Amino acid sequence: MTSVALTSALDGLALRQRTIANNIANINTPNYHAKVVSFENALAQSVQAGEGNVTAATTRSTAATNLNGNNVNLDTETLANIDALLRYQFAAKAVDGPATAMRTALRTS
């Protein structure tokens, strides 16, 4: 179950990174509304239920728009990207941990 939950987290974080990149690419597009990715609450509930498998959802941001109708905020997107990157790296290390331990054990034999 742990590996299923970590895989779900990695998938959700990868989608978040792609979504942030798309938001930034559209920062000057009139009437473009940023998208946000959420999965953490659903993942926590799924893990609590003993499952761990969820699909991330992308929704439209409700942040205020500027004069051209666009609501992408570069500062917000940059911070969200850093957060997603760090979380992704942490989850990837957690997935790789058992394999690294096995490789280390096999080398010392």
TrEMBL record:
Question: Where along the sequence do coiled-coil regions lie?
Answer: none
Q: Which InterPro entries match?
A: Flag_bb_rod_N, Flagellar_basal_body_rod_CS, FlgB
Cell compartment(s), UniProt: Bacterial flagellum basal body
Instruction: Report if keyword Nucleotide-binding is assigned.
Output: no
Task: Please tell me whether the keyword Transcription regulation is annotated for this protein.
Answer: no
User: Flagellar basal body rod protein N-terminal domain spans which residues?
Assistant: 7-32
Q: Which UniProt keywords apply?
A: Bacterial flagellum, Cell projection, Cilium, Flagellum
Pfam families registered for this protein in UniProt: Flg_bb_rod
- Subcellular location, principal: other
The family note in this entry says:
Belongs to the flagella basal body rod proteins family.
Q: What does this protein do?
A: Structural component of flagellum, the bacterial motility apparatus. Part of the rod structure of flagellar basal body.
Task: Output this protein's name.
Answer: Flagellar basal body rod protein FlgB
The species this protein was found in: Cryobacterium levicorallinum
Classification lineage: Bacteria, Bacillati, Actinomycetota, Actinomycetes, Micrococcales
